[in-house]
Amino acid sequence: MCCESKRRFLLLYATQKGQAKAIAEEIWQQAGAHGLEADIHCISEMDKYNLETEKDPVVIVISTTGTGEPPDTARKFVKKIQDKTLPPDHFAHLQYGLLGLGDSEYMFFCNGGRTVDRRLQELGAQHFYDTGLADDCVGLELVVDPWIDGLWLALKEALQLQKDKEGMNNAVNAVSSSLSTAPHAVHELKLSSEVQNLKLEDEGARRSDTLSQKLDDINLVAPARDTEPSLVHSVPPVSQSALNIPALPPEYIEVEFQDTQGENLHLSSLISEGRTFEVPVTKAVQLTREDAVKTALLLELDIADTAFEYQPGDAFCVICPNNVSEVEKLLHILGLSEKGDDIVCVKVKQGTKKKGAVRPQHIPERSTLKFILTWCLEIRAIPRKAFLRALVECTSDAGEKRRLQELCSRQGASDYTHFIRDSNVCLLDLLHAFPSCKPSLSLLIEHLPKLQARSYSVSSSNLYQPGRLCFVFNVVEFPAGPSRPVSRKGVCTGWLAELVAPLLHPSKNSQGTKGESSSTEKISIFPRPNNAFHLPEDPSVPFIMVGPGTGIAPFIGFLQHRQKLREQHTDWEFGETWLFFGCRHQDRDYLFKQLQCFLKNGTLTHLKVCFSRDSSTSEVAPPKYVQDVLRLCAKEVARVLLKDGGYFYICGDKKHMADDVSDAVVDILSMEMEADKLEAMKILAMLREAKRYLQDVWS
């Protein structure tokens, strides 16, 4: 169908990790079955579309990154539309629908989408379809699937309304006057907790495969006596249902092996965020005792000979590889163990039905197979339903095929959430659970997302340690479980721990002290500055830091920086500083006992610590968590925030700490102001808006 047929709509996506792009491509794939054509572009490709002159409906799919910012690919677009000189009717001609992606574990849920939505409204644009906000915390598909279902009717009505208006503009006045009495044909969709109950109104155009299979037609993966569902086994009603499964994504990649071996690309070619720096690891220290629940490591990098710059509170990214043994296992399953070092040429498949198909940017046109699997593809990614649908076609066993169909179907949505998404199942786990599934390399390139660099908070000050950058992390552990046959370490933290093992455990014959070495182990990094999580510009302003566990990392940089400023500027006035730190055991995971040094030299005014798992013999039990200690210091906390105009910083786990700290601050403000909680919440919201209540958290 040609774009001039008036069935066209513009489809824009802004993605950070590939989710928004994948959803936009799903919309594009379904559009044809509804008699529509999506003109799809990344929102950063502003030379390929023009919203100022766009007449057709616009659909936008946009994610959120960092602390509520739009993704990197949307920054130029957002900057452009936030131009304050634009008139309020700048986009009065524009009709759009927006789908925002986010995670409610974070403070500014879907703020990337909300920011664009709000600004388009301010500039006069009109919704033809209600905004959808999908939550990765509970499963994006709970909103995404029904939002896409309802999109088609809304688009058709918007296009018809547009066509009617154009025709009536050319008609006589009588016809024009009749237009004003016509009902407004904008489709509305309520995206609430009942969203999964929504259905397409024009079922005939739904592009999915309906499969009706009876139990006696298939070989069950598990014995019939099993009454509990699992990754490989279903129970009624799912096991007896006809299934609505996604359309099979069109193949669009082909690979060609060359017998010759060659050199791989430099890692800097893998990122688009800017300049990368290859720097040596000069020091590694284990901060926790061997019997601690978690292993925390501190690494020091030498950046003296680079142009890398940072401020305390900034973050940076580490380019990391997939686990070597996992890559080897994947090569074995693919039957390509002997070809790991062979050159692979990746190109778009001739005759593909995928419109605008291009080789993924993160996949080199020519490199070794091992390089692609090690540095380019996120083989630990949780498989999306479209990937499961494609894997169905690679599975020979009837029972396994049926179960994969169930897991990607609407009827199996709960099983997908429980056994795949919440269980952090990856491709290797699936291939172990479904041994007759033998995907091709091209399929993996089509469906596995880009291997993302991992972000870490800086734990040092360039003023205090010139030419050095430190960071702290826990070595992440994923225990074995019903859906995961083996335990695993985090992709990046496990790699870093293995990389610095010689520094942590030097041999008896090596020279130098423990934790330091002349080792030339290097890692590639690039900066990711934080726009807000910095020390107050005015050094006389007091501030409070809350950082249990490795959440203390950026505050070490804060204190180092403050100490040097005090030494260099003896005539300056410095505000008081508070640090609330907590861990499980005082003797096992008290990460920075040298905090006492900051306390003694006056850099740190108040240090409050707590230990959640230590037993106590005192009559009054000591506080276990940082939020408990905050409540004990309620008057001082309220004074710093309300009277002294101070700042409040939180760093650490979002789900199990930051929300509890926020609740404690609300209680403190309510109590000290003698106001109700609603008023206290308004004050906290004002502090956030003024960037005096700042968070650097993760889930």
What are the salient characteristics of this protein?
Rossmann fold; NADPH-cytochrome p450 Reductase, Chain A, domain 3; 31% helix; alpha/beta; 19% strand; six-stranded antiparallel β-sheet; 699 residues; 24 strands
Structural class of the secondary elements? Answer: alpha/beta
Count of β-strands: 24
Backbone shape: globular
Summarize the biggest pleated sheet.
6 strands, parallel
The CATH architecture assignment of the domain at 7-164 turns out to be 3-Layer(aba) Sandwich
Helix content: 25-40%
Annotated CATH homologous superfamily of the domain at 7-164: Flavodoxin domain
CATH topology label of the domain at 7-164: Rossmann fold
Measure the end-to-end span: 45 Å
Determine the mean pLDDT: 86
- List unreliable stretches of 5+ residues: 172-225, 508-514
Radius of gyration equals 28 Å
User: Strand fraction band?
Assistant: 15-25%
GO cellular component, one term: cytosol
Main location: cytoplasm
Keywords: Amino-acid biosynthesis, Cytoplasm, FAD, Flavoprotein, FMN, Methionine biosynthesis, NADP, Oxidoreductase, Phosphoprotein, S-adenosyl-L-methionine
Subcellular location: Cytoplasm
Q: Care to describe what's here?
A:
- The protein contains 20 helices and 24 strands.
- Strands 1, 2, 3, 4, 5 and 6 form a six-stranded parallel beta sheet that branches.
- Helix 8 (385-392) packs antiparallel against helix 9.
- The longest helix is centred in the N-terminal third of the chain and has 29 residues, at 141-169.
- The two termini are 45 Å apart.
- The model is unreliable at 172-225 and 508-514 (pLDDT under 50).
